[in-house]
């Protein structure tokens, strides 16, 4: 019978020697069986397989569950910013919380079935008195970012010249300095951006995936390792900048395609989860929901634009950076105006140009076109939010009021209190604003809603807009 190590409260409550471990009834499982058991437990309990990853519940997660239940090594294939690394790192939660190892072992030797020379000799010498240490699951995860200078020694191991200098023979297994893969024995090892790994180094992983062992230098040592290997790759790298050699790709059991958020609501939820809160002394940030939706819609529009290089992708980090930048622009404006609440407005949106250009590859013909392309994406996103979220019935009265001679000046220098006056003096505008921010919203949120309505009417060609040095003026067409 397998004793679940997680049933005990902490390593202090667990067997401290090999004899005590045997007496407890504990026995080890292969890491794939351990993960399978914990995956099935989560499925049965209706718990998510990975925490903190949104938008994959009906696509990536079922495929990943199948692969792990089958005991397969996995490649996650997707463009940048698709949470591949987060998914991989979250897999550590599928390991048992505590696992016994031979104390002092560099490769997490199972006390009942040691594989390293050090652990075998220790068990042979001490028997049931062999000391047992308990390793937390966080220490059973290893990761390497594949770079062209990664060596076999990094991944598999190498002869340690210091140990040789101490008097050991070169052929002695104890002279080996183990690489990252053996040190993750009985755990999960991840290779990020696998195609960037030199092909001759990829060959070194073939035995790990098929024969489940590593071979180090000329040593006649077959070191069986129990490792689940997970890799990530970018499709562009997969086909051009680098490639996964065919024999290595053939040894992975599953290739799972990740994707960007497929709707604005998911993108907004990710931004809310990932964006760093902006804390400024004396200023409170109140981010209107419709401006957050506009930020998310910019990224969605960029992913559908022919002017943006889709091979490099439009990361969710674009939305996060834009959200944080827009909040910063609002805080900067509020501080200059002496206001205690900073609510992003449409007039703050030009701040998104540099933060967006830093995240996407724009296919521009002439210098300066890239900024214009981003401005068009922002305008398109804003128009979509306006059409979907603003009550169109009351807007006819707003257009009529402007046709009768009403005007409105807006911009970063216009105080929030002035927008309250604009909304109150323009028929239909107060109703549209209330539908967006509610009847008891403060002046800062009212200002943001007023700018959305007026800019939406301009983008839908129902009002004219004159650009002024300090902002803009809206008037009848």
Mean pLDDT metric: 89
Which percent band covers the strand fraction?
Answer: 5-15%
Helix content: 40-55%
The description of the largest β-sheet is:
5 strands, parallel
- CATH superfamily annotation of the largest domain: P-loop containing nucleotide triphosphate hydrolases
Q: What is the C-alpha radius of gyration, as a whole number of Å?
A: 30 Å
What is the straight-line distance between the termini? Answer: 81 Å
Low-pLDDT ranges: 1-9
Indicate the structural class. alpha/beta
- CATH 2nd-level architecture of the largest domain: 3-Layer(aba) Sandwich
CATH hierarchy class name of the largest domain: Alpha Beta
> Number of domains in the coordinates?
2
Please work out how many helical segments DSSP would assign.
21
Sequence of strands across the biggest β-sheet: 4-7-10-1-11
**CATH fold-level topology of the largest domain:** Rossmann fold
Number of strands: 16
Q: What spatial form do the alpha-carbon principal axes imply?
A: elongated
């Amino acid at each position: 019978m397998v004793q679940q190590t997680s049933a005990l409260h902490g390593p202090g409550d667990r067997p401290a020697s090999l004899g005590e471990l045997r007496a407890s009834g504990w026995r080890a499982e292969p890491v794939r069986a351990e993960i399978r058991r914990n995956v099935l437990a989560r499925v049965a309990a209706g718990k998510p397989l990975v925490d903190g990853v949104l938008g994959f519940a009906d696509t990536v997660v079922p495929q990943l569950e199948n692969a792990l239940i089958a005991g397969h090594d996995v490649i996650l294939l997707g463009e940048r910013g698709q949470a591949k690394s987060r998914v991989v790192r979250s897999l550590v939660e599928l390991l048992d919380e505590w696992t016994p190892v031979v104390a002092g072992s560099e490769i997490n030797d199972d006390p009942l079935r040691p594989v390293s020379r050090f652990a075998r000799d220790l068990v042979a010498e001490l028997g049931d008195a062999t000391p047992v240490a308990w390793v937390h699951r966080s220490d059973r995860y290893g990761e390497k970012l594949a770079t062209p200078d990664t060596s076999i020694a990094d991944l598999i191991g190498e002869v340690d010249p210091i140990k040789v200098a101490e008097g050991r023979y070169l052929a002695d297994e104890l002279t080996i300095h183990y690489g990252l893969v053996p040190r993750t024995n009985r755990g999960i090892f991840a290779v990020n951006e696998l195609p960037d790994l030199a092909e001759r180094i990829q060959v070194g992983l073939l035995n790990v995936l098929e024969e489940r062992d590593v071979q180090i230098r000329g040593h006649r040592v077959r070191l069986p390792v129990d490792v689940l290997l997970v890799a990530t790759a970018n499709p562009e790298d997969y086909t051009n900048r680098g490639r996964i050699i065919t024999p290595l790709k053939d040894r992975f059991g599953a290739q799972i395609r990740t994707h960007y958020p497929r709707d604005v609501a998911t993108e907004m939820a990710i931004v809310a989860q990932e964006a760093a809160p902006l804390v400024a002394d004396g200023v409170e940030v109140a981010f209107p929901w419709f401006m957050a939706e506009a930020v998310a819609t910019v990224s969605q529009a960029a992913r559908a634009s022919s002017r943006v290089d889709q091979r490099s992708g439009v990361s969710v980090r674009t939305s996060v950076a834009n959200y944080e930048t827009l909040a910063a622009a609002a805080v900067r404006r509020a501080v200059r105006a002496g206001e205690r609440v900073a609510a992003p407005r449409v007039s703050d949106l030009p701040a998104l140009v540099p933060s967006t250009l830093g995240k996407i590859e724009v296919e521009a013909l002439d210098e300066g076109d890239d900024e214009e392309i981003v401005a068009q994406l922002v305008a398109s996103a804003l128009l979509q939010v306006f059409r979907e979220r603003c009550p169109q019935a009351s807007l006819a009265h707003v257009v009529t009021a402007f046709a009768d001679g009403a005007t409105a000046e807006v911009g970063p220098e216009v105080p929030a209190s002035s927008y309250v006056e604009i909304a109150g003096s323009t028929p239909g505008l107060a109703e549209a604003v209330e539908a967006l921010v509610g009847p008891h919203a403060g002046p800062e949120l009212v200002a943001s809603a007023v700018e959305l309505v007026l800019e939406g009417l301009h983008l839908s060609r129902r009002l004219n807009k004159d650009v002024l040095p300090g902002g803009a003026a809206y008037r009848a067409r």
